[in-house]
Design goal:
By secondary structure, this protein is α+β, with helices and mostly antiparallel strands. The protein is built from 5 helices and 6 strands. Strands 1, 2, 3, 4, 5 and 6 form a 6-stranded antiparallel beta sheet that branches. The longest helix has 14 residues, at 63-76. It is globular, with a radius of gyration of 15 Å. It starts with a strand and ends in a 6-residue tail after the last strand. The mean pLDDT is 94.
């Protein structure tokens, strides 16, 4: 089995879609762990605040199959198939890490967002601080220690069971 880390984001009915994301991801694997859910202002565009978190799970799917399944979930829950990058979302599922895979093609693994966004590195730090990022040889903890804007994150009390 491969350990995958999926970033979840929603700013359209975020309570509903955050819970849906966990239920849908549970169909793709087992041993789910869910980070704290954080509220964070939209970055890169003027929009409503997002709920963001990371889900860790073990899966038997290949990278290509898993990535395709994530896209299907997004579309099933209201995301437009050719939506622009910086806009409101019902559900955004980003594959951040997938075992020891390294891919420069779509999906890019490890996802560069690890180094860019507080709503990615903070939840990863909670789930796997000592995990080494393939292709970088740095641990999640090392990246987290150099992160900025972590103060933009507001923890949200989880209202559902995992």
């Amino acid at each position: 089995m491969t350990v995958a880390y999926v970033g979840v984001g929603s700013n359209i009915e975020p309570c509903k879609h955050s819970e849906v994301a966990v239920k849908e991801l549970s169909k793709l694997g087992c041993s789910l762990k869910v980070s704290t859910i954080y509220e964070c202002e939209a970055l890169g565009f003027d929009g409503r605040a997002f709920y963001n978190f990371v889900v860790e799970l073990q899966t038997d799917f290949s990278l290509a199959e898993f990535s395709r399944k994530l896209r299907e979930i997004e579309i099933d829950w209201g995301r437009k198939e050719h939506s622009a990058k910086y806009q409101d979302r019902t559900l955004d599922l980003d594959l951040i890490l997938f075992g020891e895979e390294i891919s420069q093609q779509d999906p890019q693994i490890p996802r560069i967002d690890i180094y860019k966004y507080p709503f990615v590195i903070q939840p990863l730090y909670e789930l796997c601080p000592d995990r080494v990022i393939p292709s970088d040889c740095k641990s999640i903890r090392q990246v987290w220690q150099n992160s900025t804007q972590l103060d933009l994150l507001k923890p949200v009390e989880r209202w559902f069971e995992v």
